[in-house]
Please model this.
Amino acid sequence: MVRVGLKTLLEGFPRIQVVGEAAGAAEALEVVSQSKPDVVLLDIRLPDGSGLEVCRQLRKAHRGLRVLMLTSYYTDDMVMDAIEAGAEGYLLKEINADFLVRSIQEVLEGKSILDPAVTRKVIDRVREGKSGDSKPSLDLLSPQERRVIALVAEGKTNNSEELSEQLDGETELHPPIPGSRFLRAAPNRAKQLY
Model:
């Protein structure tokens, strides 16, 4: 039911073309291979597996593919796991249609996206040094690394030029690690799979 509603909603936007849909992990892997979408909307929990594992496999098999997690579930660990799996964003299903479509477009432009509710929690966690570990996470980072994380949490891309500009050229940034870099899509091309 949710997939049908989401498909109907997205098809109402002229720059988005729904090219496939899947009910579970195995089907998602197959449909993506056949339909070659630009963006995949993926839930964390799937009936036959983990959305995080599907994300990892998709990113490994399809280089330019962008994955946007769209889920009802939120914990700090889930967000971090999704980002580590290669997702460019994490949205909660309670968002409105305009924000969802805008988020898809921003992911296509190479930006990282966090749901506003998630963003606030990530920023608070970074600033307060909260961590699931016994040692505070901020103690492990330099002041410059903390600033970079805060900028990414605020929606800045992990593009070296953009971050360097935001940091007033204070430091030379190294290029992102392959596989964690957000790639730009071809202009005016927006396919969607969920």
The radius of gyration is 17 Å. The helical segments are 2-11, 25-35, 51-61, 76-85, 97-108, 116-128, 143-153, 160-166.
